[in-house]
Amino acid sequence: MAMKPVVLRELAHLDVEDAIEHYLRDGGTAVALGFVDELERAYMHIARHPATGSPRYAHQLGFADLRFWRVQRFPYLVFYVERADDIDVLRVLHAQRDIPAWLDED
């Protein structure tokens, strides 16, 4: 199966930077690097198998193509939409956030 490029929107970049800063501050370099590794694995999975993400919030928000994939070992969710040529990552949010409110910011 062909992989589609994963493209992060500006808010997704900011989400990732905030998470890395949090892990550097509270957990140290090893934890932050572990997060980055798991996030990269999540991106690779989404690139290969975009349809496997959960559409749970798509129904709740009325955003038909929205899916999310959980980052292993960390409480983060990658929210994305599969496009014809790529994977459009909208946000990377902590699972304990008010997801509908945070997604509505975009």
Describe the protein in words.
The structure is a single chain. With 106 residues, the chain is α+β, with helices and mostly antiparallel strands. 46% of the residues lie in helices and 22% in strands. The chain is built from four helices and four strands. It has a four-stranded mixed β-sheet. β2 and β3 form a beta hairpin. α1 runs antiparallel to α2. The longest helix is centred in the middle third of the chain and has 20 residues.
Labels describing this entry:
single chain, 106 residues, alpha+beta, four-stranded mixed beta sheet, 4 helices, 4 strands, 46% helix, globular
List the helices and strands and how they pair.
Blueprint: E1 6-8, H1 10-26, H2 29-48, H3 56-61, E2 66-70, E3 76-82, E4 87-94, H4 99-104
Parallel strand pairs: 1-4
Antiparallel strand pairs: 2-3, 3-4
Helix pairs in contact: 1-2
What is the C-alpha radius of gyration, as a whole number of Å? Answer: 13 Å
Mean pLDDT across residues:
94
The description of the largest β-sheet is:
4 strands, mixed
Percent strand equals 15-25%
Query: Please, how many helices?
Result: 4
Cross-sheet strand order for the largest sheet: 1-4-3-2
Quantity of strands, as a count: 4
**How much helix is in the residues?**
40-55%
The first-to-last residue Cα distance is 31 Å
Could you give the order of the helices and strands? EHHHEEEH
Shape: globular
Concise account of the structure shown:
The protein is an alpha+beta fold. It contains four helices and four strands.
